[in-house]
Amino acid sequence: MLHEFLSLHRVELIQRCQTKVAKRASPEATADELDHGVPFFLDQLIKTLTMEQTANPMESRKVSGPEGGGKPAHSELGDMAARHGGELMRRGFTVEQVVHDYGDLCQSITDLAFEINEPVNVDEFRTLNRCLDNAIAMAVTEYNYQRDFVLADKQVQALNVQIGFFAHELRNFLNTATLALFAMKDGNLGLTGATGSVLDRSLVCMRTLIDRSLTDVRMTAGMPLRHELFSLADFIGELKLSATLEARVRECALVVSEVDGRLAIDGDRDLLLSAVGNLLQNAFKFTHHGTKVFLNAYAQGDRILIDVEDHGDGLPPGDVEKMFQPFTQCGDDKSGLGLGLSISRRSVEANDGILRVRNKMPSGCIFTIDLPRHTLLAGAGQV
């Protein structure tokens, strides 16, 4: 009888399973993986097989559950398998290893029975498969439940951090703007003085922070793109208007090249405005006082290139890819959330473009947006 065979060779079967576990490469497995898995499952299997030899074989379902799948029924085996699945998830094992644990035992039983020529009848083998099926189903279900719970908790934590950063930065800019306004009112100061410049800077920073956050929300939510064919010259002209004030606040100059009126972009205008705007804000942030930031847009073959060039300290070695990660700031100026470049790359790539960056000599760097080239029809939207 199979239950007698399992009882007699219980220790050897567990050892065989431990050997299989030890051979797994990733994650590094230990005998602890079996604590609430194979030994308990083996005991419940033996108990089930033994009860099926009694006058009330269906009582075994209370131990190992019914067959046929569907909604899992309460059973001793199911409860222990669920516990095992949750344990493996918390220890960092994969869902594949949850399945392997039970597959190891089935293979060990089959191998040992074959080696010592132990017969296993059809009904006993069906019971073994039913127990394995129920145990795997309950273990995987609990594993996925615990994993989803952990992932949801991490997402909430990440969202709280992001909201906290946003609120902190917005409060700082609003506080500075409020103090500047009070100072101007108390001292009857004009808008063109130093205090007015502080107010300008704070308002520009708040606008930038809100624009970036809205774009990030839109990209994260996966909202559909709003494709349209629009003039490159008009696009650059709009950027020039909004960036000129920030250039003045940052005490540098913005130089914008002439753009061929026939060139066009087919994409989501708002996302691309955000992408180039973030690059310009980044350039104003790091370029040296009194220097120039260049905005150039031109065609090269079947591509349209938009360059944003600054006169800062350039890119530190090894920071090129790191700087595109969210909440990453590579320069000495740590103001802002560190989201601008990440949002720019995602916005550009969503429009079938490429964002790259390179150092230039003797100082500074150039960010380039590379997009498919399109042409306007005669008289349509040209500048």
Total tally of structural domains:
2
Percentage of residues in DSSP E strands: 5-15%
Can you tell me the CATH architecture of the largest domain? Orthogonal Bundle
Detail the poorly predicted runs.
333-338
The name of the CATH topology of the largest domain is Globin-like
Query: What's the rounded overall pLDDT mean?
Result: 77
General shape: elongated
Distance between the termini: 90 Å
**Helical region count?**
11
Description:
56% of the residues lie in helices and 12% in strands. With 383 residues, it is α+β, with helices and mostly antiparallel strands. The protein has 2 domains: 2-154, Orthogonal Bundle (Globin-like), CATH 1.10.490; 226-375, Histidine kinase-like ATPase, C-terminal domain (Heat Shock Protein 90). The chain has a 5-stranded mixed beta sheet with strand order 2-4-5-7-6. It has a 3-stranded antiparallel beta sheet with strand order 1-3-8. Strand 6 (354-359) and strand 7 (365-372) form a beta hairpin. It starts with a helix and ends in an 8-residue tail after the last strand. Mean pLDDT is 77; it is low at 333-338. Its EC number is 2.7.13.3. Residues 165-375 form the Histidine kinase domain.
Which characteristics define this entry?
383 residues; alpha+beta; Globin-like; Heat Shock Protein 90; 2 domains; three-stranded antiparallel sheet; 8 strands; 56% helix
